[in-house]
Amino acid sequence: MSARLAAGTYRCRDVSQSAVAAVDAGVTWVDTAPNYASGTAEAALRPVLDACPQVRVSTKVGFVPDSDRQAARDAGVPPYDRDQGHCLARPCIAWQLARSRARLGRVPDLVFVHNPEHGRTDTADLTRTLTGAFEELESAADAGKIGGYGVATWAGLSSGMFTVSELTALAETVGGPHHCFRAVQFPVSLIQLAVVADALDGCGALVEAREAGLDVFASAPLGGGELPGAMTEELVRLIDPAASPAQAVLSVALSAPGVSRVLLSSSTPAHWADALGAEACEPLSPDRLRKVIDVLGT
Questions:
Q1: What is the mean pLDDT of residues 48-75?
Q2: Which domains are seen in the chain, by residue range?
Q3: Of the given ranges (5-9, 68-72, 169-173), which has the lowest mean pLDDT?
Q4: Residue 7: in which H helix or E strand, if any?
Q5: Which of 141, 118, 145, 139 minimizes the C-alpha distance to 129?
Q6: Looking at the DSSP assignment, which residues form a beta bridge with residue 248?
Q7: Is the pTM of this model over 0.85?
Q8: Nearest CA to 174 among 114, 113, 101, 121?
Q9: What sign results for the dihedral spanned by CA atoms 241, 244, 247, 248?
Q10: Which of 22-58 are b and which e, b meaning 16 or more Cβ less than 10 Å from the residue's Cβ?
Q11: 191 φ/ψ angles, rounded to the nearest 5 degrees
């Protein structure tokens, strides 16, 4: 398949163990965030990253974990949503970037703006927020403090709060033709098939990302780990008669047009071996993907 698996650390019980299992399996990208694993994920990754300089890493800015809130107040970062700890003001982004570099022990290859739609219904306010965030991230990239940046969203695209084309246009406005906006991250799975259906019809987020030259990180391909256990024999056969349930689920995200990397959280060598079996297969054809969409809907 053209898409590759990457290690996600959301919901990992043991981030270090999961990362070691992924790297041992040959995975070369790990995705994390300051708020994952109750604020410990980045620091837990450092020994793995120190030992494996070839592994690339992405992290995020936006959510401030409970364990960092006093430090945020002490640093004088602007007020943020006290219930969810979300802040995309420029001083807060700069503060989070510095902490991420220290915890990871290196400059992150990518930094995603984490769920910028969080708590917002006003698109004008969201645009202002993203403009400031992009300005700070362009400055950080110019200074060599990050490799590049992107947007990781759960519902911003599906809800119509913004499009990939609008994000790209904003990056060009802020950073010019040589901006450092490199990637987007959003859900692609058997329960998030609308984006795949759009791509097969030549429109939507995946097509816009491909046209802009952006990498796409597909998140939640296993639906929070629930999809493999929910697969029927008929559905597995429809996707790939030779596949295991997990491989059948992953193959949909891996085959989605325009997807670059599929984020998988797994802590065992056996699970990674099974997943890499899906990665090694030929992508599902557009016709096969359409059949799956016809059966499951969007």
A1: 94
A2: 1-31+188-298 (3.20.20.100), 55-181 (3.20.20.100)
A3: 68-72
A4: strand 4-8
A5: 118
A6: none
A7: yes
A8: 113
A9: positive
A10: bbebebebbbbbbbbbebbbbbbbbebbeebeebbbb
A11: -105, 5
Q: Are 42 and 34 in contact (CB under 8 A)?
A: yes
Q: What is the 3-state secondary structure (H, E, C) of 20-40?
A: HHHHHCCCCEEECCCCHHHHC
The pLDDT value recorded for residue 99 is 97
The torsion angles phi and psi of 58, rounded to 5 degrees, stand at -120, 145
What pLDDT does residue 84 have? 62
Are 100 and 34 spatial neighbours (Cβ–Cβ below 8 Å)? yes
* CA 15/CA 40 separation, integer angstroms: 9
What tens digit of pLDDT does each residue of 197-244 get?
999 999 999 999 999 999 999 999 999 889 999 999 999 999 999 999
Alpha carbon of residue 185 to chain centroid:
4
